[in-house]
Specification:
The complex is a heterodimer of chains A (260) and B (551). Chain A has 260 residues and is mostly helical. Chain A has 2 domains: 76 residues, no CATH class; 134 residues, no CATH class. In chain A, 52% of the residues lie in helices and 3% in strands. Chain A contains 12 helices and 2 strands, in the order E-E-H-H-H-H-H-H-H-H-H-H-H-H. Chain A has a two-stranded antiparallel ribbon with strand order 1-2. Chain B folds into 2 domains: 339 residues, FAD/NAD(P)-binding domain, CATH 3.50.50; 198 residues, no CATH class. Helices cover 22% and strands 18% of the residues of chain B. Chain B is built from 11 helices and 18 strands. In chain B, the strands form 5 sheets. Chain B has a 6-stranded antiparallel beta sheet. In chain B, strands 6-2-1-10-18 form a 5-stranded parallel beta sheet, covered by helices on one side. Chain B has a 3-stranded antiparallel beta sheet with strand order 7-8-9. Classes of the chains: A mainly alpha (260), B alpha/beta (551).
Chain lengths: 260, 551
Amino acid sequence: MPTTPVWSAVICVSEREINVRCAVVIEFSVSEVRSLFSVPNELPTISTTPVTSRRLTRREIVQSLLASMGALVLPQIASSHPVFRHLSDAETLAKADTRAAAAKWTPEFLDAHENQTLVLLSERIVPGSSQAQVNRIIDLLLTVDTPGNRRKFIDSLSAIDAESRKRRGLPFKSLSPDRQDEILTSLATGKPSVDQDSGRRSMKKRLQQPAFTPRDHFENVKTWIVGSYYSSEVGMRELGWTGDVYFVELPTCPHPEGHE
Amino acid sequence: MLVIGSGASGGWACKRLAEAGLKVALLEAGRPQSFKNFTEHQPPFELKYRNLVPEVVRKTRPIQSEFEICSEYNYRWFCNDLEEPYTTPTDKPFHWLGRLRMTGGRTNVWGRVSLRFSEFDLKSADFDGYGENWPLSYKDLEPYYDLVENYVGICGMAEGIPHLPDSKFQPAMPLTCQELLLRNRAKEKLGWTVTPARSANLTRPLNGRGACHYCGPCERGCQTRSYFNSAFTTVADAVQSGNCTLISNAMVYRVLMDTDRNRARGVLYIDRNTRQPHEIHARAVVLCAQAQESVRILLNSASQQHPNGLGNSSGVLGHYLTAHVRTGGGSGEFPTFDAKPSLGGPKRPLGFYVARFRNTNASTRSKNFLRGYGFEGDTELSFNWSAPGFGETYKKALRDPRAQVSVQGFGEVLPRWDNFVEVDDKVVDHYGIPVLKIHMSDGANEQAMIKDMAESADELLQAAGAKNIRTFANPSAPRWAVHEAGIARMGSDPNKSVLTQFQQTHDVRNLFVMDASGFTSNPCQNPTLTIMALCVRSCDYLMDEMKRGNI
């Protein structure tokens, strides 16, 4: 059997315009591993139109190699192997991404005042949001969302400023953190237009769009911030995400005595 | 041999025929599938919009995105609704979902619940007098269920229920504490069976496929091939046999006929990329394109000899459309039993199933409706996302875990003449092919059944001591309906049916329809396992007939 060249990979994530270099040497050939575990190289592909072959990036090759290794025989070993860790270290990549993008970022949808307000507001509502750059993802999402949702978001930011001006005579961003919390407390304890807890509304009421109360505006902004923070890497890690995707078994019930 | 469609049935048809030595061309309307397209391990922050803005998907998939598994991760696998429209009467909205355009078809994203039909289901007309019996019996299907299950790999637990026969199971996935409680109380107080979902997910390696690694989102693909997707199982086998050629991007327009001999001689298809028409010829044509798509091809094949559509001498082609109703159910809160929610750790791909308990015998007969339904359910151990307040207080309150068990009915729809599809002459898709007009609405039986789903969900959750129970019973329109069936029904009488018990058209001997189109009725069990078993049986018949020189 002809031997394919032994593969040495230097992982250079150049496609992300950064220069994270992690030297990893894989000491077996791709085809050896594949034949060992009988992993097909590809799903059957087809005949009519010739497939233009795109060269795989090194990262893709190593990742798919590792994935199939872990997949078929050694899930726990593969996912804890330092190579795997390194390659799946999305945090490193994300940080590098951020660094690359940081210098020239300007909001596309929000204006400067709205953006500054959002940065401060998100940090008060979910601490850690400025580090996770929640304002940037929200700005991006708003560029593609429906006109209705965009409008609501802007209205809600304005409503928070309005409350702030009413109580303290200044826009939200000009207040101290304590004063900001005071405004938020007042909003968060107001009355919602719909009683979310009971969920009981007549069909007629459901069809009507109730006018937003200050509390609704707070909840609207909070939902955006919570969703954006906890879908960021830092937020997900806070809630237990590790990046591990291969598990040997599911937990079983630890209560032989029953559940009375 | 020509096989149209590479989903559950098409995959099996080409595997069965190619491995027996026949030369098969497999025409698939979509693109080739590849492990590179699989994103089950990708966290949301690696997506451009983190799967947070439905509008991203809705722009090109306004209908497909109504199906919750169609997301920013995988929406490109689904048909572009703007390119492939269909119509409905204005008062009968209908969501035609799960229209995949990849090798593997719907098996790429299916729910994987795999349940056998029983003799009781196939002969339901004998029990309640409604509709028609199937022209075959459970004994005919049983060996094919065995065959299919031994290859597909179904995990589950044997329960010995007469109207829900056990499969050849791999070990079941465990129930949660909440579900164990539910199972015991339901059995004790109501006599109902709560069992781990019977699903096409491996819990043991099989044929070179790995056991489930519990990463969670099967509908985004699987690096270890642990769920059943025909792209990396049946179709891969067929291609590997050397006898099957997969032709991608081939939108089949119509069946071509040899009018002198009344035989199908091939099909006309449009290449999606070039928009060029092509003809391809074969000794037999097997449609496995999904019920509406297969029937659309037959209706679009109308000719002088077959003026109402091919295979339609009976006039029933396109009629008796059925799909499950699932808009009734409920949820309730349970104790957490010290479990802690986490975004990490293993995730079970599927929950539990409650076997049908209405109209299963004389003592469980309902006064309000015929037939029955099962519940699919799951336990959600989640963070308290709706915790009040903000700041560190909110972050802390968020971690207060919630355990919620929810159940949702999957109910049988009675086959009715006035639920039907026809060709809409005024509208064509981007490939120039006339589209379907779909007429579907709930009848009184469905309405009563949906109402009962909410009531029995309440009963079930109460029996288990759930708190804050909420139930729902909504009309099914515009429907979540991906179990469409029955529009080219099987029957022994050629005047009342389109297909024989071997899914061969009564009118043209070498033309078969091996997807769910042939279902004479559509029992509440999820249809895919039966689609596959029927298909293999019909392929064996087709090959026998060829040997006898009849095809």
